[in-house]
Amino acid sequence: MLRLPSIRFTLKTDAMQSMLRNFINGRWETGATTGASENPSDLGSPVAEYARADARQTQQAIRAASDGAATWAHTTPQRRADALDFVGSEILARKDELGELLAREEGKTLPEAVGEAARAGQIFKFFAGEALRISGEKMASVRPDIDVEVTREPVGVVGIIAPWNFPLAIPAWKIAPALAYGNAVVFKPAELVSACGWALAEILSRAGLPAGVFNLVNGSGRQVGQALLDSPLVDAISFTGSEATGAQVLQRTSARGAKVQLEMGGKNPLVVLADADLDRAVECAVNGAFFSTGQRCTASSRIIVERRIHGDFLGRLLERMKQLKVGPALARGIDIGPVASRPQLEQNQAWLEIARQEGAEHITGGQLVECESKGYFMSPALFLAAPEHRVAREEIFGPVAALLVADGYEHALALANDTKYGLCAGVCTSSLKHATHFKRHAQAGMVMVNLPTAGVDYHVPFGGRKASSHGPREQGRHAAEFYTTVKTAYTYA
Ligand code: NAP
Prior knowledge:
Elements: H1 15-18, E1 22-24, E2 27-29, E3 33-37, E4 48-52, H2 55-73, H3 77-93, H4 95-106, H5 110-131, E5 137-140, E6 146-154, E7 157-161, H6 169-180, E8 184-188, H7 194-204, E9 214-216, H8 221-230, E10 236-240, H9 243-255, E11 259-263, E12 269-272, H10 278-290, E13 302-306, H11 310-323, H12 342-357, E14 361-364, E15 381-384, E16 400-406, H13 409-417, E17 421-422, E18 424-428, H14 432-441, E19 446-449, E20 465-466, E21 469-470, H15 480-483, E22 484-492
Parallel strand pairs: 7-8, 7-10, 8-9, 10-11, 12-13, 12-18, 13-16, 15-16, 18-19
Antiparallel strand pairs: 1-2, 3-4, 5-6, 6-22, 11-21, 14-15, 17-20
Helix pairs in contact: 2-8, 3-5, 4-5, 5-6, 10-11
The structure holds NADP nicotinamide-adenine-dinucleotide phosphate.
NADP nicotinamide-adenine-dinucleotide phosphate (NAP) binds next to α8 and α9.
């Protein structure tokens, strides 16, 4: 029988919370070593201590998943739907509490964090429904008296390697379809957000899944991540993270023929045309570039503005940026929380220097911000850049945007596509002609018209092109491509 929600994630007092453990083969296990998860808004109050697994413990989890996969592949769709529905319902019922944990550990503002928790719940609910809708095709053969059936079967054991910037939603959009389509899971969160990973696992541990079907292994990419990549028992790897790590993931998994899906970086353009509603365009730019501290793969880190309105747009953008409040993630009225970690803050600061040295004009921001608590606070930064500047070409993953000036629509489109990435592209315009042309010709997996480049629905495909992605799309019904394998059966009767 399923137990009702019990544990508050914000305390460090009960037995579970004194040390967040790994979940392997249906049991909570201590690790090889321990780690502490930091609160980037308040360095004096760590979020949690957690057990760190090593490669040996990861192998245990993989073996458990391999055994569990056989059972789960043959469960009824109803049982899978019930389990996922339980998880989704509990996350939604506890979204405030989970959001608070997320805000404390990752640093996004409380409203953003609660929104992410709700999204994770909705994703589980969506895939609860999809578990009941796994379909195939029955076709007439081209030969006489033969029937052909095309069906989908689970892939087997799926290794899930997640980044820190969406610690509930990204694991949800990988774990939920994996389980819905009958696979077993070994989940490795980013160490930076081990408590969020644990919180999700704690709910999944009470969802009525057979032992081994879902496993949580906290630990480093070097140990836990690589053990997942190299194990012949892991049939598929779903990875989201940086391009550099993604390249390693691809190399190692391809070498042994595993199925692999990669979602990586972006340098997403937001084009602002002269006919745009400028107030709306400014909101799109501010939201897309700086909310969630710019730590979104879909962030609008390149704002491409038509020359005719450049001065007017920049004036309004600077006015709006002045109003943005940077501060602790849980504080009221905050627009931008802290940067998630010290290395990320140092990297952002180094980017400011790179941009200045290569000749980009520093317009505003980038200062370290003092708050009541000690944390990684930084004001949003804006540069006027040329297309060849690195600040306009490489992913920074922080509250730093490059503004580029375009001579008309065609030039703006060319600048938008002048990148190795292809995750999301946006345009602000009141012209149907330009909006339609942009939707057709932007080289990106997702396109936004009069919307920020970040912020998507949970029931439709998510993913990019070029260096941003590899393999089938995530989310929505398209997730079936990755989490199932197709079988074609012929019957002569
Ligand atoms: P990251 O450093 O590449 O890490 C991602 C995950 O890979 C973490 O769990 C990490 O573990 C693990 N890892 C690191 N080295 C590994 C290795 N050698 N083998 C196996 N696993 C390894 O990325 P991040 O800093 O967490 O996330 C930021 C990046 O993610 C940005 O580039 C952003 O654009 C991208 N992102 C993309 C999307 C998308 O859908 N396109 C969405 C969100 C984020 P540890 O960190 O615990 O060691």
